[in-house]
Structures are given as C-alpha cells and as structure tokens.
Design a protein that fits this description.
mainly alpha
C-alpha cells in the first residue's frame, strides 16, 4: 500500500490544484449569484453590473501577465500561496463594499471625479483586489502540472484540476443563496472567502518541486522527468530570465493568446450572466436556481475531464502531443457551434432546454480549455510556462472584459426597445462561432508543433 501511494504522488498534487481551483471559482462566483438581490437593493442597471464584472476581468487580465512572471520568479509554492492570500482577502472585503464605496466616492469627489454610485464603486474595489490574487491561480497550476507530469498526462491532469472550476460553480449555487437568505448577503462573501486559508495549510505541507519532494519515489521522479533532457532542468531553468519581448516574437505565443482572447469571454459570460439570464428570462431566483445551475456545471466538470482524455486518446494513437490536442480541439469546437444557435429558438419549451444546451456548450469550453492550456507546456520549456500562461491569460481576461462590457450594453439596449430575446440571440450566436474561429487561427499560425528551446527565449 505504501509503495502504491508513493508511486502516484503526482496525483496528490493534482488534487491540491483541483481544490485550489474550486475555491478560486467559488470566490468569483458569489457575486453573480447575488446579482439579482444586489441589483434590486442598489438599483443597478445591466451596464452597472457589466462594469463591475469587466473591472474584475481587466484586473485579472493585467495581473495575470505579471502573475506568470511572479510565479516563475518566486517558484510555484510561494507564488501560489501569496496569490491565495490576496484573493481570499479580496473575496471577503466584498462584504464591506458599501463603506469602502462611501470613502472612495468622497475621495474621488475631492479630486473632481464623479459618476459612479457608492455601491458600484465599492464592488469595483473589491473585484479589483480579487482579480489581482485570482490571476495567479492558472499560471501557478499549469506550472505545477508541467513540473509534476510528463507531457502525455498533462492534458488529463489539467482537465482534472480545471474541473475544480466547475465544482466551484456547482457548490456556489448550493451555498450562496442559502447563506444570503439566513445570514445576509455579506455572510456569503465572508464565509466562502475564508475557505482558502484552510487550503493554504495543506498546500504548504504537501507541495514542493519534484526534485525536492521527499514523498516521491525515485521511479516516479524518473517517470515525471522522462520526456527529454531539455525539458527536465527545472532547477537550472530558475536561473534564466525569460524575455517577454522574445516570447512575443513567436507565432506560438500569439496562437495561444488569440485562442484565449476569443474564447475565454464565452466562459466569463456563462459564469457571470447565467444567473441573471435565468432570472430575467424564466423568473428563477434564490433556491429555484440551485438545481438548474448545479446540473449545468456538473455537465461542465465531465466535459473538462473528457477533453483531457480525448487528446490523450489521440496521443496514444501515435499523434504528437500538439497534433493530438489540435485534433481533439477541432471536434470540441463543433459542440457550441451547434447547440448555442438552438438556445433561443427552443427556450419556449422549458427553461431546462437552454440549461442543457448551455451546459453542453460550457462543457465543450472546459474540454477546449483543458487542451488550450496544455499547448503552452507542449511547446515552451517549463521556465516559460507560467509566463506564457500569464500572457494568454491576460489576453483571455481582456476578451472577457470586452464581453462583459458589451453584453451589459446590448442587454440594456434591447431591454429599452422591448426586444430582449434578440439581445440574447446575438450574444449566444457570437459565442457559438468563437471556438471555430479560434481553432482556425491557431492552425494557421502553428500548423505543426515546433518545440521552443530555453536558449531561444532567455536573456543569456
């Protein structure tokens, strides 16, 4: 039994990343579930909510670029730990958005700036801090995966830990409405925001780089480092300074970043606007929304793992890692292309029809995401993995911010002209084609994988 446990210690690390990502998504999902309550209490428009969510995404995007460099410099263990403390504090202070907004509006008034309400200003501050901390989750998790898994297992490991985002999205509607109903909306931010500190204890105890990890057997360490000698020099690569300017000269960087820019916004739309969509379209709120959202995000968890399995299936059939992932991703793009065009035409049957169809599209996104993330570690050395993930994450966050901003404007416009269904149709249609467009761009920029050597991207 002891031998079996040690042989598979890399999956213990994957479990840690899974739970860290679960908490990450729990914290960011609280606001969307409380949106109907806060919208009524503070008289927000769709544009107000769009601005609040866009600020989170812009903060997330900008600091994800820095987070990648920060994690590469600090190392995975310290970098992830610091980020978790920041985002947990950011999650908790949402409960104090109103006093923060009052102070901030007064200061802005003295400086000659005005326009935003106290509540919008306070939530913007909280979302900004949350975005700063949460930006490091995926650069750190992808780097940890590259450290602990050989290439053929990385998409599966990424799919598993990435499914934590879906579990977080499932747990949020099971807990947030209940907490808000019995203890007030502030309690949801405080209690859920505090969960990260319990995870932090486990992270500090159980994580270390493979070459320093005493719980690894020699056999498993050799397996982890089995890809190639150029890919295993984790300790030596820490001495190199990766050049962002050099990274931006590679088509591989732009391929990854543009794919994130075009598709991440779809997931952000699902995450931040679905509770509002179900509320306004079908008048679901509070406990009514728990079951449909739980079913939807349970579907996405399966999609994330299946996406990792699908690319591993093609790799085991003889495809190179990148080629196997691209083949899997092509099939994945067909799912949202079909189902999202059906959401509005079939929504009159029952609210369960759009829930299932959007669930299929969201599952496809998670399958897509598990593979897109892994293309970075397929092509770039470990020393640059977090930086590349950060660059792509910044692009994805910017795409998400644009989606949130314009979705708010679109929904307000079509609400004013009393045709909200057309607004939903336009947004779902744009989401449907995003993945195929992204795949075509990736294929044009990088038709075949070319492994980038550490010497090509460092200032030596």
């Amino acid at each position: 039994m002891e031998s079996n446990r040690v042989k598979n210690y890399r999956w213990v690390i994957c479990s840690l990343l899974f739970f860290g990502t679960t908490i990450n998504y729990l914290d960011r999902q609280v606001l969307s579930l409380l949106h109907p309550i806060l919208e009524e209490q503070f008289q927000w428009s769709n544009s107000d909510y769009g601005i609040i969510t866009a600020i989170f995404q812009l903060s997330y995007a900008f600091f994800m670029l820095l987070a990648g460099r920060f994690v590469d410099k600090m190392g995975t263990k310290k970098g992830y730990a610091i980020a978790l403390v920041i985002w947990s504090v950011g999650a908790i202070i949402h409960a104090f958005a109103i006093p923060m907004g009052e102070v901030s509006v007064q200061i802005l008034g003295v400086l000659g700036f005005s326009g935003l309400s106290i509540s919008v200003t306070g939530f913007i501050i909280a979302r900004l801090i949350l975005g700063v901390g949460e930006s490091a989750n995926f650069p750190a998790a992808i780097k940890a995966t590259a450290e602990y898994f050989p290439k053929k297992e990385r998409a599966l490991a990424t799919g598993i830990f990435n499914s934590g985002s879906n579990v977080g999205a499932i747990l949020a509607p099971l807990t947030v409405p209940w907490l808000a109903y019995y203890y007030g909306w502030q309690s949801a931010f405080i209690i859920i925001g505090s969960l990260g500190f319990f995870w932090l204890i486990l992270w500090l105890i159980f994580y270390d780089t493979p070459v320093k990890q005493k719980r690894l057997s020699p056999e498993e360490l050799n397996y982890i480092l089995s890809d190639s000698t150029s890919d295993i020099k984790t300790e030596e690569e820490k001495e190199y300074k990766v050049s962002w300017l050099k990274l931006l000269t590679f088509k591989q960087t732009w391929s990854y970043s543009l794919a994130k820019f075009l598709t991440d916004g779809v997931w952000w739309f699902f995450l931040f606007w679905l509770p509002s969509y179900l509320n306004k379209k079908f008048h679901l709120s509070g406990s009514d929304i728990i079951l449909p959202l739980s079913v939807l995000y349970t579907m996405t968890m399966i999609g994330s793992i299946c996406g990792g399995w699908l690319s591993m299936y093609f790799i085991n059939k003889g495809f190179a890692p990148y080629d196997g992932r691209m083949k899997a991703m092509f099939y994945i793009t067909l799912v949202p292309l079909i189902v999202l065009f059906l959401v509005q035409p079939l929504s009159g049957i029952s609210y369960w029809v759009p829930v299932i169809l959007i669930g299929l599209a969201a599952s496809a996104h998670q399958a897509w995401s598990a593979n897109v993330y892994t293309t970075a570690s397929d092509i770039f050395p470990k020393a640059a993995t977090a930086s590349i993930t950060g660059i792509g994450g910044m692009a994805g966050g910017m795409g998400g911010a644009l989606v949130s901003f314009f979705v708010g404007k679109v929904f307000d416009y079509y609400h004013r002209i009393e045709d909200p269904n057309l607004g939903y149709t336009l947004v779902f249609s744009a989401c449907a084609v995003a993945y195929l467009v992204a795949w075509i761009i990736m294929k044009l920029l990088v038709p075949k994988a070319k492994i980038i050597r550490i010497e090509e991207i460092t200032n030596l």
